[in-house]
Amino acid sequence: MRRFPRELLVVKPFFRYRCMHTLPDLPYDYDALEPVISSEIMKIHHAKHHKAYVDNLNKAEEGLQKALSEKDVSSQIAFHNALKFNGGGHLNHSIFWNNLAPKSRGGGYLNNGQLKTQIEKQFSSFAKFKEVFSSQAVAIKGSGWAWLGYDTRTKNLALATCQNQDPLLATVGLIPLLGVDVWEHAYYLQYKNERPKYVDAIWEIVNWKNVEESYQKAVEFSN
Amino acid sequence: MFALRRLATNAIISNTRAAHALPELPYAYEALEPIVSRDIMSLHHTKHHQTYVTNLNAAEEKLKTALSKGDISTVVSLEPALRFNGGGHLNHSIFWKNLSPESTQPSEPLKKAIESSFGGIQQLKDQLSASSIGVQGSGWGWLGYCPKSGCLKIATCANQDPLQATTGLIPLLGIDVWEHAYYLQYKNVRADYVKAIFEVVNWKDVSERFEKAKC
Protein backbone atom coordinates (compact mmCIF):
# COMPACT_ATOMS: atom_id res chain seq x y z
CA MET A 1 0.00 0.00 0.00
CA ARG A 2 1.36 3.44 -0.91
CA ARG A 3 2.35 5.68 1.93
CA PHE A 4 2.61 9.42 1.41
CA PRO A 5 5.53 10.88 3.37
CA ARG A 6 3.81 13.83 5.00
CA GLU A 7 7.02 15.83 5.43
CA LEU A 8 7.56 15.88 1.66
CA LEU A 9 4.06 17.18 1.06
CA VAL A 10 4.43 19.86 3.70
CA VAL A 11 7.96 21.02 2.95
CA LYS A 12 7.85 20.86 -0.84
CA PRO A 13 4.23 21.00 -1.88
CA PHE A 14 5.07 21.91 -5.46
CA PHE A 15 6.82 18.56 -6.02
CA ARG A 16 4.63 15.80 -7.34
CA TYR A 17 4.35 13.13 -4.68
CA ARG A 18 5.96 9.75 -5.14
CA CYS A 19 6.93 7.06 -2.69
CA MET A 20 10.57 6.17 -2.30
CA HIS A 21 11.96 2.82 -3.33
CA THR A 22 13.16 0.67 -0.47
CA LEU A 23 15.55 -2.23 -0.14
CA PRO A 24 13.45 -5.43 -0.05
CA ASP A 25 14.21 -7.92 2.69
CA LEU A 26 15.90 -11.13 1.66
CA PRO A 27 13.45 -14.08 1.83
CA TYR A 28 16.11 -16.03 3.81
CA ASP A 29 19.08 -15.41 6.11
CA TYR A 30 22.43 -14.22 4.78
CA ASP A 31 23.97 -17.67 5.42
CA ALA A 32 21.03 -19.64 3.96
CA LEU A 33 22.61 -20.12 0.52
CA GLU A 34 25.89 -21.53 1.83
CA PRO A 35 28.00 -23.23 0.67
CA VAL A 36 27.00 -22.08 -2.82
CA ILE A 37 27.07 -18.39 -1.96
CA SER A 38 28.80 -17.31 1.23
CA SER A 39 27.06 -15.20 3.86
CA GLU A 40 29.78 -12.57 3.43
CA ILE A 41 28.90 -12.14 -0.24
CA MET A 42 25.15 -12.13 0.42
CA LYS A 43 25.51 -9.51 3.13
CA ILE A 44 27.63 -7.09 1.07
CA HIS A 45 25.64 -7.77 -2.10
CA HIS A 46 22.31 -7.01 -0.40
CA ALA A 47 23.15 -4.44 2.29
CA LYS A 48 25.74 -2.48 0.27
CA HIS A 49 25.39 -2.98 -3.47
CA HIS A 50 21.61 -3.29 -3.74
CA LYS A 51 21.14 -0.61 -1.09
CA ALA A 52 23.34 1.78 -3.11
CA TYR A 53 21.18 1.21 -6.20
CA VAL A 54 18.05 1.96 -4.17
CA ASP A 55 19.50 5.13 -2.64
CA ASN A 56 20.86 6.39 -5.95
CA LEU A 57 17.65 5.52 -7.76
CA ASN A 58 15.69 7.61 -5.25
CA LYS A 59 18.10 10.52 -5.75
CA ALA A 60 17.90 10.25 -9.53
CA GLU A 61 14.08 10.07 -9.44
CA GLU A 62 13.96 13.12 -7.20
CA GLY A 63 16.19 14.98 -9.64
CA LEU A 64 14.03 13.82 -12.53
CA GLN A 65 10.82 14.96 -10.77
CA LYS A 66 12.33 18.38 -10.23
CA ALA A 67 13.44 18.64 -13.87
CA LEU A 68 9.97 17.57 -15.02
CA SER A 69 8.27 20.15 -12.84
CA GLU A 70 10.61 22.85 -14.19
CA LYS A 71 10.18 21.63 -17.77
CA ASP A 72 13.97 21.32 -17.97
CA VAL A 73 14.34 18.81 -20.80
CA SER A 74 18.13 18.85 -20.80
CA SER A 75 18.34 17.93 -17.12
CA GLN A 76 15.68 15.27 -17.56
CA ILE A 77 17.83 13.60 -20.20
CA ALA A 78 20.93 13.96 -18.03
CA PHE A 79 19.27 11.73 -15.42
CA HIS A 80 18.61 8.85 -17.82
CA ASN A 81 21.95 7.15 -17.26
CA ALA A 82 21.59 7.16 -13.49
CA LEU A 83 17.99 5.93 -13.80
CA LYS A 84 18.94 3.05 -16.08
CA PHE A 85 21.89 2.02 -13.95
CA ASN A 86 20.31 2.32 -10.53
CA GLY A 87 16.77 1.49 -11.61
CA GLY A 88 18.05 -1.54 -13.44
CA GLY A 89 20.18 -2.50 -10.44
CA HIS A 90 17.15 -2.31 -8.15
CA LEU A 91 14.89 -4.27 -10.53
CA ASN A 92 17.50 -6.94 -11.25
CA HIS A 93 18.47 -7.60 -7.66
CA SER A 94 14.86 -7.61 -6.47
CA ILE A 95 14.22 -10.44 -8.94
CA PHE A 96 17.51 -12.19 -8.11
CA TRP A 97 16.91 -12.61 -4.36
CA ASN A 98 13.62 -14.37 -5.14
CA ASN A 99 15.21 -16.41 -7.91
CA LEU A 100 17.34 -18.14 -5.26
CA ALA A 101 16.38 -20.43 -2.40
CA PRO A 102 18.24 -22.75 -0.04
CA LYS A 103 18.09 -26.43 -0.96
CA SER A 104 16.04 -27.04 2.18
CA ARG A 105 13.33 -24.86 0.62
CA GLY A 106 13.38 -26.45 -2.81
CA GLY A 107 16.36 -24.64 -4.27
CA GLY A 108 17.83 -26.42 -7.29
CA TYR A 109 14.86 -28.64 -7.96
CA LEU A 110 12.58 -28.16 -10.98
CA ASN A 111 9.28 -30.01 -10.65
CA ASN A 112 7.51 -31.57 -13.61
CA GLY A 113 5.18 -28.96 -14.97
CA GLN A 114 4.58 -26.39 -17.71
CA LEU A 115 7.97 -24.72 -17.38
CA LYS A 116 9.98 -27.97 -17.41
CA THR A 117 7.99 -29.16 -20.43
CA GLN A 118 8.62 -25.91 -22.29
CA ILE A 119 12.35 -25.96 -21.45
CA GLU A 120 12.66 -29.52 -22.72
CA LYS A 121 10.67 -28.66 -25.82
CA GLN A 122 12.82 -25.65 -26.72
CA PHE A 123 16.24 -26.85 -25.57
CA SER A 124 15.80 -30.65 -26.07
CA SER A 125 16.71 -31.27 -22.42
CA PHE A 126 17.05 -29.50 -19.10
CA ALA A 127 20.77 -30.29 -19.10
CA LYS A 128 21.20 -28.70 -22.53
CA PHE A 129 19.32 -25.60 -21.36
CA LYS A 130 21.65 -25.25 -18.35
CA GLU A 131 24.69 -25.73 -20.60
CA VAL A 132 23.67 -23.01 -23.04
CA PHE A 133 22.58 -20.61 -20.29
CA SER A 134 25.82 -21.17 -18.37
CA SER A 135 28.04 -20.63 -21.38
CA GLN A 136 26.28 -17.33 -22.13
CA ALA A 137 26.63 -16.23 -18.51
CA VAL A 138 30.33 -17.08 -18.40
CA ALA A 139 30.99 -15.32 -21.71
CA ILE A 140 29.66 -11.91 -20.68
CA LYS A 141 32.44 -9.37 -21.12
CA GLY A 142 32.72 -7.21 -18.04
CA SER A 143 29.73 -6.83 -15.74
CA GLY A 144 26.24 -8.01 -16.54
CA TRP A 145 23.47 -10.52 -16.18
CA ALA A 146 22.40 -13.68 -17.95
CA TRP A 147 18.65 -14.18 -18.26
CA LEU A 148 15.97 -16.69 -18.98
CA GLY A 149 13.10 -14.61 -20.22
CA TYR A 150 9.71 -14.95 -21.86
CA ASP A 151 9.00 -13.52 -25.27
CA THR A 152 5.35 -12.43 -25.44
CA ARG A 153 5.54 -12.06 -29.21
CA THR A 154 6.62 -15.62 -29.96
CA LYS A 155 5.17 -17.06 -26.71
CA ASN A 156 8.50 -18.81 -26.17
CA LEU A 157 11.24 -18.86 -23.61
CA ALA A 158 14.39 -17.03 -24.67
CA LEU A 159 17.90 -16.57 -23.35
CA ALA A 160 19.56 -13.17 -23.29
CA THR A 161 22.40 -11.29 -21.64
CA CYS A 162 22.51 -7.66 -20.58
CA GLN A 163 25.47 -5.43 -19.80
CA ASN A 164 25.92 -3.73 -16.46
CA GLN A 165 22.48 -3.23 -14.86
CA ASP A 166 20.51 -2.82 -18.08
CA PRO A 167 17.08 -4.24 -17.14
CA LEU A 168 15.89 -7.09 -19.34
CA LEU A 169 12.37 -5.98 -20.22
CA ALA A 170 13.26 -2.39 -21.04
CA THR A 171 16.40 -3.37 -22.99
CA VAL A 172 15.44 -6.53 -24.85
CA GLY A 173 11.66 -6.77 -24.45
CA LEU A 174 11.64 -10.12 -22.64
CA ILE A 175 9.85 -10.70 -19.35
CA PRO A 176 12.52 -11.69 -16.81
CA LEU A 177 12.06 -15.13 -15.24
CA LEU A 178 15.53 -16.13 -13.97
CA GLY A 179 18.61 -13.94 -13.76
CA VAL A 180 22.19 -14.80 -12.86
CA ASP A 181 24.32 -11.89 -11.71
CA VAL A 182 27.85 -12.20 -13.11
CA TRP A 183 29.21 -8.92 -11.80
CA GLU A 184 32.41 -9.86 -9.97
CA HIS A 185 30.94 -8.66 -6.67
CA ALA A 186 28.41 -11.52 -6.94
CA TYR A 187 31.11 -14.19 -6.59
CA TYR A 188 34.68 -12.91 -6.32
CA LEU A 189 35.18 -13.16 -2.55
CA GLN A 190 34.45 -16.88 -2.77
CA TYR A 191 35.19 -17.99 -6.34
CA LYS A 192 37.87 -15.41 -7.25
CA ASN A 193 38.35 -15.29 -11.03
CA GLU A 194 36.55 -18.62 -11.54
CA ARG A 195 33.22 -17.41 -12.85
CA PRO A 196 32.43 -20.80 -14.48
CA LYS A 197 32.57 -22.51 -11.06
CA TYR A 198 30.15 -19.96 -9.60
CA VAL A 199 27.73 -20.29 -12.52
CA ASP A 200 27.94 -24.07 -12.29
CA ALA A 201 27.22 -24.01 -8.56
CA ILE A 202 24.33 -21.53 -8.64
CA TRP A 203 22.05 -24.09 -10.30
CA GLU A 204 21.92 -25.86 -6.91
CA ILE A 205 20.01 -22.93 -5.41
CA VAL A 206 17.76 -21.73 -8.21
CA ASN A 207 14.27 -21.26 -6.83
CA TRP A 208 12.40 -22.96 -9.66
CA LYS A 209 9.07 -22.48 -7.86
CA ASN A 210 9.55 -18.72 -8.18
CA VAL A 211 10.71 -19.00 -11.80
CA GLU A 212 7.66 -21.17 -12.65
CA GLU A 213 5.30 -18.64 -11.01
CA SER A 214 6.83 -15.83 -13.08
CA TYR A 215 6.54 -17.98 -16.20
CA GLN A 216 2.85 -18.71 -15.60
CA LYS A 217 2.13 -15.02 -15.02
CA ALA A 218 4.00 -14.13 -18.22
CA VAL A 219 2.04 -16.72 -20.21
CA GLU A 220 -1.28 -15.41 -18.80
CA PHE A 221 -0.27 -11.85 -19.56
CA SER A 222 0.45 -12.63 -23.17
CA ASN A 223 -2.81 -14.57 -23.71
CA MET B 1 66.47 -24.23 -55.90
CA PHE B 2 68.21 -23.61 -52.61
CA ALA B 3 67.54 -19.84 -52.94
CA LEU B 4 63.84 -20.49 -53.60
CA ARG B 5 63.56 -22.67 -50.51
CA ARG B 6 65.24 -19.96 -48.43
CA LEU B 7 62.82 -17.35 -49.81
CA ALA B 8 59.87 -19.54 -48.87
CA THR B 9 61.25 -20.18 -45.37
CA ASN B 10 61.84 -16.47 -44.81
CA ALA B 11 58.32 -15.74 -45.98
CA ILE B 12 56.93 -18.24 -43.50
CA ILE B 13 59.08 -16.85 -40.70
CA SER B 14 58.09 -13.27 -41.41
CA ASN B 15 54.44 -14.25 -41.52
CA THR B 16 54.68 -16.18 -38.30
CA ARG B 17 54.83 -13.83 -35.35
CA ALA B 18 55.66 -14.63 -31.77
CA ALA B 19 52.52 -14.99 -29.70
CA HIS B 20 51.80 -12.32 -27.09
CA ALA B 21 53.24 -13.16 -23.70
CA LEU B 22 52.38 -12.17 -20.15
CA PRO B 23 54.89 -9.49 -19.14
CA GLU B 24 56.59 -9.91 -15.80
CA LEU B 25 55.68 -7.55 -13.01
CA PRO B 26 58.48 -5.04 -12.31
CA TYR B 27 58.16 -5.86 -8.58
CA ALA B 28 57.14 -8.71 -6.27
CA TYR B 29 53.44 -9.49 -5.73
CA GLU B 30 53.56 -8.11 -2.19
CA ALA B 31 55.51 -4.97 -3.14
CA LEU B 32 52.44 -2.70 -3.34
CA GLU B 33 51.11 -3.65 0.09
CA PRO B 34 49.29 -2.30 2.00
CA ILE B 35 47.72 -0.42 -0.93
CA VAL B 36 47.11 -3.44 -3.15
CA SER B 37 47.38 -6.83 -1.48
CA ARG B 38 49.59 -9.67 -2.68
CA ASP B 39 46.53 -11.88 -3.26
CA ILE B 40 44.99 -9.32 -5.57
CA MET B 41 48.25 -8.72 -7.47
CA SER B 42 48.87 -12.43 -7.89
CA LEU B 43 45.35 -13.22 -9.16
CA HIS B 44 45.19 -10.07 -11.26
CA HIS B 45 48.47 -10.83 -13.01
CA THR B 46 48.63 -14.63 -13.25
CA LYS B 47 44.93 -15.26 -13.84
CA HIS B 48 43.16 -12.22 -15.28
CA HIS B 49 45.98 -10.75 -17.40
CA GLN B 50 47.17 -14.22 -18.43
CA THR B 51 43.65 -15.03 -19.64
CA TYR B 52 43.58 -11.93 -21.81
CA VAL B 53 46.94 -12.93 -23.31
CA THR B 54 45.83 -16.52 -23.94
CA ASN B 55 42.52 -15.47 -25.47
CA LEU B 56 44.15 -12.72 -27.54
CA ASN B 57 46.55 -15.25 -29.05
CA ALA B 58 43.66 -17.60 -29.84
CA ALA B 59 41.62 -14.80 -31.43
CA GLU B 60 44.58 -13.64 -33.50
CA GLU B 61 45.13 -17.18 -34.81
CA LYS B 62 41.51 -17.32 -35.91
CA LEU B 63 41.86 -13.86 -37.45
CA LYS B 64 44.90 -14.89 -39.49
CA THR B 65 43.05 -17.95 -40.77
CA ALA B 66 39.98 -15.92 -41.65
CA LEU B 67 42.07 -13.27 -43.41
CA SER B 68 43.94 -15.88 -45.41
CA LYS B 69 40.60 -17.40 -46.53
CA GLY B 70 39.03 -14.03 -47.29
CA ASP B 71 36.30 -14.88 -44.75
CA ILE B 72 35.06 -11.37 -44.00
CA SER B 73 32.17 -12.51 -41.83
CA THR B 74 34.49 -14.32 -39.44
CA VAL B 75 36.96 -11.40 -39.46
CA VAL B 76 34.17 -9.07 -38.34
CA SER B 77 32.81 -11.53 -35.78
CA LEU B 78 36.23 -11.67 -34.10
CA GLU B 79 36.21 -7.93 -33.30
CA PRO B 80 34.69 -8.21 -29.82
CA ALA B 81 37.18 -10.89 -28.75
CA LEU B 82 40.12 -8.91 -30.15
CA ARG B 83 38.97 -5.67 -28.56
CA PHE B 84 38.28 -7.30 -25.19
CA ASN B 85 41.40 -9.43 -24.94
CA GLY B 86 43.68 -7.11 -26.89
CA GLY B 87 42.49 -4.21 -24.79
CA GLY B 88 42.90 -6.26 -21.63
CA HIS B 89 46.49 -7.08 -22.56
CA LEU B 90 47.34 -3.48 -23.53
CA ASN B 91 45.70 -1.97 -20.46
CA HIS B 92 47.26 -4.29 -17.92
CA SER B 93 50.70 -4.06 -19.52
CA ILE B 94 50.52 -0.29 -18.95
CA PHE B 95 49.00 -0.66 -15.48
CA TRP B 96 51.77 -2.80 -13.98
CA LYS B 97 54.33 -0.18 -15.02
CA ASN B 98 52.09 2.69 -13.88
CA LEU B 99 52.49 1.38 -10.33
CA SER B 100 55.59 1.16 -8.16
CA PRO B 101 56.51 0.59 -4.53
CA GLU B 102 59.10 3.39 -4.85
CA SER B 103 58.25 6.97 -4.01
CA THR B 104 58.23 8.99 -7.24
CA GLN B 105 57.42 12.48 -8.47
CA PRO B 106 56.17 13.81 -11.80
CA SER B 107 58.85 15.40 -14.01
CA GLU B 108 58.87 19.18 -14.37
CA PRO B 109 57.35 19.11 -17.88
CA LEU B 110 54.58 16.78 -16.66
CA LYS B 111 53.94 18.98 -13.61
CA LYS B 112 53.63 22.02 -15.87
CA ALA B 113 51.23 20.18 -18.18
CA ILE B 114 49.14 19.04 -15.21
CA GLU B 115 48.98 22.60 -13.89
CA SER B 116 48.01 23.89 -17.29
CA SER B 117 45.32 21.25 -17.94
CA PHE B 118 43.89 20.81 -14.43
CA GLY B 119 45.24 23.58 -12.21
CA GLY B 120 47.49 21.32 -10.16
CA ILE B 121 48.21 17.76 -9.14
CA GLN B 122 45.51 17.68 -6.45
CA GLN B 123 42.91 18.78 -8.97
CA LEU B 124 44.07 16.06 -11.35
CA LYS B 125 43.77 13.47 -8.56
CA ASP B 126 40.31 14.74 -7.62
CA GLN B 127 39.02 14.64 -11.19
CA LEU B 128 40.61 11.34 -12.14
CA SER B 129 39.30 9.81 -8.90
CA ALA B 130 35.76 11.07 -9.48
CA SER B 131 35.74 9.78 -13.06
CA SER B 132 37.18 6.40 -12.09
CA ILE B 133 34.78 5.94 -9.18
CA GLY B 134 31.88 6.91 -11.43
CA VAL B 135 32.49 4.21 -14.03
CA GLN B 136 29.30 2.14 -14.26
CA GLY B 137 30.20 -1.53 -14.27
CA SER B 138 33.70 -2.58 -15.29
CA GLY B 139 36.22 -0.24 -16.85
CA TRP B 140 39.17 2.06 -16.46
CA GLY B 141 39.84 5.68 -15.56
CA TRP B 142 42.61 7.28 -17.62
CA LEU B 143 44.89 10.27 -17.75
CA GLY B 144 45.69 10.63 -21.41
CA TYR B 145 47.51 12.94 -23.77
CA CYS B 146 45.57 14.49 -26.62
CA PRO B 147 47.92 14.73 -29.60
CA LYS B 148 45.63 17.18 -31.41
CA SER B 149 45.41 19.77 -28.66
CA GLY B 150 48.62 18.96 -26.80
CA CYS B 151 46.60 18.88 -23.57
CA LEU B 152 46.19 16.28 -20.88
CA LYS B 153 42.68 14.89 -20.57
CA ILE B 154 40.77 12.55 -18.32
CA ALA B 155 38.65 9.82 -19.87
CA THR B 156 37.00 6.57 -18.91
CA CYS B 157 36.58 3.44 -20.95
CA ALA B 158 34.14 0.58 -20.46
CA ASN B 159 35.31 -2.98 -19.96
CA GLN B 160 38.74 -3.41 -21.63
CA ASP B 161 38.24 -0.89 -24.42
CA PRO B 162 41.77 0.43 -25.00
CA LEU B 163 42.13 4.18 -24.59
CA GLN B 164 43.92 5.15 -27.76
CA ALA B 165 41.86 3.05 -30.16
CA THR B 166 38.64 4.19 -28.49
CA THR B 167 39.26 7.89 -27.87
CA GLY B 168 42.47 8.83 -29.68
CA LEU B 169 44.14 9.81 -26.38
CA ILE B 170 47.57 8.37 -25.64
CA PRO B 171 47.45 6.53 -22.31
CA LEU B 172 49.67 7.89 -19.55
CA LEU B 173 48.10 6.59 -16.33
CA GLY B 174 45.29 4.08 -15.95
CA ILE B 175 43.26 3.06 -12.93
CA ASP B 176 41.62 -0.34 -13.23
CA VAL B 177 38.20 -0.20 -11.58
CA TRP B 178 37.04 -3.68 -12.49
CA GLU B 179 35.95 -5.22 -9.19
CA HIS B 180 38.69 -7.86 -9.45
CA ALA B 181 41.24 -5.04 -9.10
CA TYR B 182 40.17 -4.26 -5.54
CA TYR B 183 37.27 -6.31 -4.19
CA LEU B 184 39.18 -8.85 -2.09
CA GLN B 185 40.63 -5.99 -0.08
CA TYR B 186 38.29 -3.01 -0.42
CA LYS B 187 34.99 -4.89 -1.01
CA ASN B 188 32.34 -2.53 -2.41
CA VAL B 189 34.23 0.63 -1.40
CA ARG B 190 35.77 1.51 -4.75
CA ALA B 191 36.36 5.07 -3.55
CA ASP B 192 38.82 3.91 -0.87
CA TYR B 193 40.80 1.90 -3.44
CA VAL B 194 40.96 4.76 -5.93
CA LYS B 195 42.06 7.19 -3.21
CA ALA B 196 44.74 4.78 -2.01
CA ILE B 197 46.16 3.85 -5.39
CA PHE B 198 47.64 7.31 -5.91
CA GLU B 199 50.17 6.37 -3.21
CA VAL B 200 51.70 3.76 -5.52
CA VAL B 201 51.51 5.61 -8.83
CA ASN B 202 54.84 5.47 -10.64
CA TRP B 203 55.13 9.12 -11.69
CA LYS B 204 58.48 8.36 -13.35
CA ASP B 205 56.70 6.00 -15.74
CA VAL B 206 53.84 8.44 -16.33
CA SER B 207 56.40 11.21 -17.07
CA GLU B 208 58.24 8.97 -19.56
CA ARG B 209 54.99 8.16 -21.37
CA PHE B 210 54.22 11.87 -21.50
CA GLU B 211 57.62 12.61 -23.09
CA LYS B 212 57.08 9.90 -25.73
CA ALA B 213 53.52 11.03 -26.40
CA LYS B 214 54.61 14.59 -27.14
CA CYS B 215 56.88 13.45 -30.00
Describe, in short, the structure shown.
With 223 residues, chain A is mainly alpha-helical. Chain A contains ten helices and three strands, in the order ααααααββαβααα. Helices cover 53% and strands 10% of the residues of chain A.
Characterize the structure shown.
Chain B: It is found in: Mitochondrion. Chain B: Its EC number is 1.15.1.1. Chain B: Belongs to the iron/manganese superoxide dismutase family. The complex is a heterodimer of chains A (223) and B (215). Helix content of chain A is 53%, strand content 10%. Chain A contains 10 helices and 3 strands; from the N terminus they run H-H-H-H-H-H-E-E-H-E-H-H-H. A 3-stranded antiparallel beta sheet of chain A has the order 2-1-3. In chain A, a hairpin with a 4-residue loop joins strand 1 (144-151) and strand 2. In chain A, helix 2 runs antiparallel to helix 4 (80-99). Chain A is globular. Residues 1-17 of chain A have low confidence and may be disordered. Chain B has helices at 2-15, 38-69, 72-77, 79-98, 108-118, 121-133, 163-167, 183-186, 190-197, 203-214; strands at 139-145, 152-158, 170-176. Chain B is built from 10 helices and 3 strands; from the N terminus they run ααααααββαβααα. By secondary structure, chain B is mainly alpha-helical. The chains are: A mainly alpha (223), B mainly alpha (215). Chain A binds chain B through residues 44, 48-49, 52, 81, 85, 141-144, 163-165, 183-185, 188-189, 192-193, and chain B through 43, 47-48, 51, 80, 84, 136-139, 158-160, 178-180, 183-184, 187-188.
